[in-house]
Design brief:
Layout: E1 3-8, H1 23-40, E2 44-47, H2 60-69, E3 74-81, H3 87-100, E4 105-110, H4 134-149, E5 183-186, H5 190-198, E6 202-205, E7 208-210, H6 217-235, E8 243-247, E9 249-251, H7 255-261, E10 269-274, E11 277-281, E12 285-287, H8 289-297, H9 300-304, E13 307-311, H10 318-332
Parallel strand pairs: 1-2, 1-13, 2-3, 3-4, 4-5, 5-6, 6-8, 8-13, 9-12
Antiparallel strand pairs: 7-11, 10-11
């Protein structure tokens, strides 16, 4: 069995060829797709966060709205760029959204990737300290966020408050018990996967990672997952660490699928998303269901993970993306023992 969800970047474009022409379209369609995915039997609705872009940005209003419209499905991010985040304000927003959803948030965090503008986090009021990199700043924000989610009091109460206080130091409210155990880290290297394991965060591994061996993408990703699990075991956590991978997978079951993806012949490739940091980018999968089953059997990282996030082409509309999800659940997952 494997958890299967979708991951949407929430792109929008005013082009008449787009089915998602405005930010309102992207948000409202995201809610409707989550509702449809739950009805189809999917396990998760996840959203990517990008700033200064025609994509989904501030995640918590969306997560709260999805939580209010659904009952069972996991609701998450993959990922929130922690260079941009005030960890205390984020803890309040996350606690509120998680309570609305009844404890179903699965928050993926990350040190971030290249954005639409140069050092965009500076516009949000953040600056690395002397001797600190922007990645260090993101990890520091993350560690503060995790500490606050523990729900321990840390703020000195006003001796003459407007409203009565409970005894002792005060914590942020609202606090959602259990959210701390549902935080994930999007790791691009083996070392950061191991760091996440030590802190008790689950692992999200995307369709790219920094190249650390020259091996095929899925092999490097599987090695990263195994390194994460070893670090989790060494840390002595009592609960089980989860791992998700994301993939573009399309079962060609009708003429629409063949028109959109029938000519997809993608493969792994190597390139640079940051200067002097070579990355390996994973392939997409698009084929008839029986062919897909055989191809996916050979993906070592999918086999290692407990959760698969299907990246969806959100600008093709809710109905088509629901079809994409249903085709995997119905025609592919059973043949792989995922259902």
């Amino acid at each position: 069995m494997k958890n299967i969800g979708f991951l949407s970047f929430g792109h929008w474009n005013p082009s008449p060829h787009s089915g998602t022409r405005s930010a309102a379209d992207a948000l409202l369609q995201s809610i409707e797709l989550a509702v449809a995915a739950e009805e189809l039997g999917a396990d998760g609705a996840y959203f990517r966060v990008h700033h200064f872009a025609r994509q989904l940005a501030s995640p918590f209003p969306l997560l709260a709205a999805v939580g209010a419209r659904t009952k069972r499905i996991e609701i998450g991010t993959a990922v929130i760029d922690m260079r941009y985040e005030n960890p205390l304000y984020m803890a309040e927003d996350a606690g509120s959204a998680d309570l609305i959803a009844g404890g179903r948030l699965q928050l993926g965090l990350s040190r971030g990737s290249p954005e639409q503008v140069i050092d965009g986090w500076r516009y949000f009021g953040y600056q690395p300290q002397d001797g600190q990199s922007e990645a260090d700043m993101a990890r520091q924000h993350t560690e503060v966020f995790l500490q606050v989610l523990r729900g321990k009091g840390f703020a000195e109460p006003n001796p003459q408050p407007m409203f009565p206080n409970p005894p002792g130091l005060l914590r942020l409210e609202p606090h959602s018990e259990g959210l701390l155990e549902r935080i994930w880290w999007g790791a691009a290297t083996n070392a950061t996967a191991e760091w996440a394991a030590k802190l008790g965060m689950h692992l999200q591994s995307s369709t790219l990672k920094f190249d650390e061996s020259g091996k095929p993408f899925h092999v490097q990703q599987a090695e990263q997952i195994r390194a994460y699990r070893e670090a989790w075991k060494a840390a002595g956590h009592e609960r089980t660490g989860r791992v998700s991978v994301s993939r573009s997978i399309f079962a060609l079951v009708d003429d629409r699928d063949r028109t959109y993806f029938g000519n997809d012949r993608s493969s792994d490739h190597f390139g640079y998303i940051e200067p002097n940091k070579r990355a390996v980018f994973g392939r997409s999968y698009a084929a008839e269901p029986d062919v897909l089953v055989e191809q996916l059997k050979g993906d070592e990282a999918i086999a290692e993970a407990d959760t698969l996030l299907l990246t969806v082409p959100n600008q093709l509309g809710v109905d088509y993306n629901a079809h994409v999800i249903e085709a995997i659940l119905k025609h592919v997952a059973p043949g792989l023992g995922w259902r």
